[in-house]
Prior knowledge:
By secondary structure, this protein is mainly α. It has 2 domains: 1-75; 77-165. The chain is 78% helix and 0% strand. The chain contains 7 helices and no strands. The longest helix has 39 residues, at 109-147.
Amino acid sequence: MAKRKKAELYDLIQRIVYLYEEEKKDFRTIASLLRSEGYDISRSSIHRAYKDYKELAKQYNEWWDKIKILVEQTQNKPTSFMLSALVSILTQHVLEFVKDIDFMEFDDPGELIKAVKELTQMAKSLEEYISAKLQKAVEKIEEEGKKRNIDPEFLKLIKEEIYGI
Length: 165
């Protein structure tokens, strides 16, 4: 298990961010203030904690932007398209989380493995569901096209559009 940083250990991250961003104190002043309150923490530890916090905040903002784009691009499509894209994003997030060994701070690795397995199964199920719905739609279009004497070339173009050929 990776060693926890002092700012995390003392649960001081939010306080450090507040002192730095809202009260405009520098890291040396923050370290002095916290040491006067009995915390054994250096300026460099505070700086690292703040830097890590900002990197994490940036990642969350990027994820939020991806989700907003996902919703905008799939809002007029079947829900299964949105779910499929969301599962893909979640899977990517989990894989990014586990690729850095420093973040392997969890009590039960089995839970992580279970989550990855469930995301993979969900992605597979959604893919099968979407494929079946598309196949059914194509069959219905072909059936109705024959009943109504619609040009076979036009039906072929629709089929190619549905399957993305």
